[in-house]
Every structure is written in structure tokens, then in C-alpha cells.
Amino acid sequence: MSTSANTLHNATAAWREADRKHHLHPFTDAAGLAKEGGPRIIVKAEGNFLTDSEGQQILDGMAGLWCVNVGYGRKELAEAAYNQMLELPYYNTFFKTATPPAIELAEKLAQITPEGLEHVFYGSSGSESNDTVVRMVRHFWNLKGKREKKVIISREYAYHGSTCASASLGGMTAMHEQADLPIPGIEHVMPPYWYDFGKGMDKDLFGRMAAKAVEDKILELGADKVAAFIAEPIMGAGGVIVPPESYWPEIQRICKKHDVLLVADEVICGFGRTGEWFASQTLDIKPDLMTMAKGITSGYLPLSGLMVGNRVAEALSEGGEFFHGYTYSGHPVACAVALKNIEIIEREGLVDKVREETGPYLQEGLRSLSDHPLVGEARGLGLFGAVELVKDKETHERHEKNLATLTCRKHCIESGLMLRQVRDSMICSPPLTFEKVHVDELVSKLRGALDATAKELGAA
Ligand code: PXG
User: Fold this and answer.
1) What pLDDT does 3 receive?
2) CA nearest 231: which of 256, 217, 245, 211?
3) How far is the CA of 46 from the centre of ligand 1 (A)?
4) What average pLDDT does the structure give for the chain?
5) Atom of ligand 1 nearest to the CA of 126
6) Residue (of 100, 62, 121) closest to 413 by Cα position
7) Is 241 helix (H, G, I), strand (E, B) or coil?
8) Checking CA distances to 367, which of 94, 217, 292, 377 falls within 20 to 30 Å?
């Protein structure tokens, strides 16, 4: 080992040791991580590539955690933060005050989000904004004199965050079990997950069936008890589940019929990933409320927002004080970075690029993996993709304990490709700055990892 490699190696060992002693990681089995020797330490990133503390370059197929839409190393974003920090690092928006970045961003968001959403309520994370959803829809129906209309319907496998309310909205049972969730007034129905739940069924018929599950729940509870339905237009952390085309029109018809507010969680889908600014535009969804985070600043700083449709905004504006807010609602530095981030996305035509060039190219590339013996389904939209691994392509039987995807993920990273594994699917959501060559690299490395996985499982 050369001297510099040795130094890197020693630094890594020291970090890992300190990490093990003092750092509790989210969604992590601490003992398992320690047994593996500790975390991979990411020290730098540029463009679409990460560098770890041992000097390995890794293509980031996940845009960080579904968020670094404009890629890494953007000096303009650093300068926007620096300049705003010097000008005004913080001021609140609570007591009849505001700051220019918070106002200017609100105006910009009203322009790029779907029609009818003209107001924003800021937070610092997707979880916070989804908590705000719970608070706001309940307050809305109180203001309307319908105090019984309080239940929010969500879906199994949904991910809406990790605070008590947002984890309750989510449909991850493992999260519920550890914290006695969901909180009262949240109900879950089946997701539009055709590959798993609709085997052998016509896709559109299945889509209507999954939408009917929402209507059945409304009828079971009574429409006078149901406040809202919340859903990711395309489910992300639940496994990149793209609903059949029949699903969203039916959901919208049902929500309208029963006067149930429709909430789109665009925390992952938003800011260009599906080839429009928001997936609601791609899928022709007209939400009453819409949450967003992540890509709003490309992850450079924490920021989130709840876009509020005119019906709810009017009721709120006449409804007296809404007793809700966060210290960092409308943080000026985060808002300044968001404005610059949106400017970059516009200037570089990244949304059009995803729709016309790299999105279809990625989808084609992922579908080309369908011939692999491990691949049951390749699916996705825009720069959103999943490859679901099975033991048996006919019966869709999966490998035990997610063995195939866990093995595949290990091989991906070893070969220099960062991907996520969700149950039996390999997931990707790369930066919007991916060029076709990056897609080629992703697809060929994934194929290599699938081959290595098949070999390893075969040998087991
Ligand atoms: N809604 C959706 C659709 C999300 O994907 C949140 C809300 C919560 O956002 P915050 O900023 O509070 O984390 C998310 C977050 C994963 C993973 O394992 C996904 C998320 C977060 C952490 C891990 O894919 N999504």
C-alpha cells in the first residue's frame, strides 16, 4: 500500500471507530453495521460521482437519497448560501415578518407547480410538511363546520416520513410496530402494485380495483368522516411502484365524488424526475394539497413545502390564526439556495432533458435487463426506475429474506455504482444531470451485479 493509500486507510479506520462509538444511524441495524466494519464514508462528490474515504469513485444512481437533482459540486448553490448568510442568515416568518428569499421562492413555486396551487407553507423536511398536511386538513374541515371529517386514507408501502404523524401516514408496518403507530384517524388501503398484487390480471382492471379500495374504505368509514387521501404519484421508497394508467383518473373521480381532499406527496417525484416539474403534471393529477422537499434544493440544504390549493387557502385565510409552524419555516438561506437550484434546472433544461432524452433512455436500458434470469419486472418513468428480482419468473416467487437484492446491492457498490434496495427490487433515481453515458454505465454495472448475484446464489 502506498503512503497516501495508507493514510486514507488509517483515517477511514478512525472514522469508523468513532462512528461506531457515537453515531446512531437512521434505519440501520447498529450491530449489523458494526459487524461489517462500519459505514462507507463518503468524503467528496462532483457531478454524478461520489468519492469514498478509500478513494473509490462511485456513480450515484440514487441522487444522494432521491434528492441531488442538479448533481454535486455546484458552486452557484454554495455562493447563493454564502451570500445570503452574509446578508441575512436567519429571520423568522412567524410574527408579521418575512424575508425576500422566502417570498420570492413562494412566488416561483406558484408558477411551476400545478395550476390552482398558489400558496406555500414551508418546513425543513418532507416529514414536517406531511405533518403539516395532517394539521391543515383537520383544521380545514373544522373551519368548514365538518368536525367529524378527520380520517386520512393512505396506502400500504407508502412512505411519507419518519415523525409520528408522517410515519402514521406511511404504510410501513415495521415502523408502526416499533412506536405503536399509526396515530388515530389514519387508515391504509392496498397500493396499486400490479406486479405483486395483480398477477395475471389486466393492468387497467387492476388499477381500477386498487382505486376502488379507496372508495370502499370511504364507504366503510362514511364519507362524512374522511378528510383526505394522501399518495405519492409514483411510490418511491415503497419500491418505485408506477400505478396503472387507470388508477389516478379513478382516484380523482372518487375523491371528488365524496368530497375528500386529494394530497399528492411529491417529495421524491417533484422537481423534474418524471420529465415535468411535478409528477402531478405528468400523470394529470389535480391535487388540493401537495408536499415537496428533497429536489427543491437538490439536497444542498434542508427545505420543504406544502403547496396549498385555493379552496383550502381561502378557508385558512378567513379562519383566524393557524397555530402551527417551525422555527425554520421559510429559512432564508435554504430558500435562496432553492431559488438558485430552480434557476439551474430551468437554464440547463433538465426537465425537458429527462422527458425527451435521458428518461426514455434509462427506461429502455432497464427494460433491456428483462432477459436476465433474475429479473421479474423492470419498471419506471423518467429518471425513476426499479428492477424486481425473482426466483421464478412465472410464479413471481421471491428469494428469501431479500437475499437477491441484498447481494446485488453489494455487487453494485463494489463495482462503483450506488443503488438502493427495497424488498425485492433494485431502485434507481439518478441526478437529472445524468447523460446517456451515465445511463449506459448504470445499466451495464447493474447487469454485471445481477450476473455476480446469480452466480453467488447458485453457488449457495
Ligand atoms: N415523502 C416521501 C415520498 C419520501 O420519499 C418523505 C416524505 C420524508 O422526507 P424527509 O425529508 O422527512 O426524509 C420521503 C423521504 C429510502 C428513503 O430509504 C426515502 C426517504 C427518506 C429516507 C430514506 O428510500 N424519503
Assistant:
1) 67
2) 211
3) 23
4) 97
5) 9
6) 62
7) strand
8) 292
Strand 384-389: give its sheet, edge to edge: 375-381, 384-389, 425-428, 420-422
Q: Is the CB of 457 within 6 Å of ligand 1?
A: no
Distance (Å) from CA 269 to ligand 1 centroid: 11
* CATH number belonging to domain 40-70+349-457: 3.90.1150.10
Mutate to test the pocket of ligand 1, among 130, 267, 405 (most ligand atoms within 8 A of CB): 267
In terms of Cα–Cα distance, which of 209, 261, 208 is closest to 231?
261
Q: Are 151 and 185 in contact (CB under 8 A)?
A: yes
Check if the beta carbon of residue 326 is closer than 8 Å to that of residue 135.
no
Q: How far is the CA of 126 from the centre of ligand 1 (A)?
A: 7
Using the mean position of ligand 1's atoms as its centre, give its distance from the Cα of residue 69 in Å: 15
Annotated domain spans of the chain: 40-70+349-457, 75-347
421 pocket-lining for ligand 1 (C-beta < 6 Å): no
Q: How many CB atoms lie within 10 A of CB 1?
A: 8
d(C-alpha 130, C-alpha 170), whole Å: 10
Distance of alpha carbon 320 from the chain centroid: 33
Whether 40-70+349-457 shares its CATH topology with 75-347 is answered no
> How many of the other CB atoms lie within 10 Å of CB of 219?
13
pTM over 0.90: yes
Tell me which DSSP letter residue 296 carries.
G
Q: What share of the chain is helix, strand, coil (3-state, %, to 5)?
A: 45, 15, 35
d(CA 60, CA 184): 39
- From residue 438, give the alpha-carbon distance in Å to each of 170, 362, 416, 441, 445: 32, 9, 12, 5, 10
**Are 345 and 424 within 8 A, CB to CB?**
no
Question: What pLDDT digit, counting tens, does each position of 334-357 carry?
Answer: 999 999 999 999 999 999 999 999
DSSP state letter for 47: B
- Cα gap 255→328, rounded to integer Å: 33
Please name the fold of domain 75-347. Aspartate Aminotransferase; domain 2 (3.40.640)
- DSSP output for 175-224: HHHHHT-SPTTEEEE----HHHH-TTS-HHHHHHHHHHHHHHHHHHH-GG
The pLDDT value recorded for residue 133 is 98
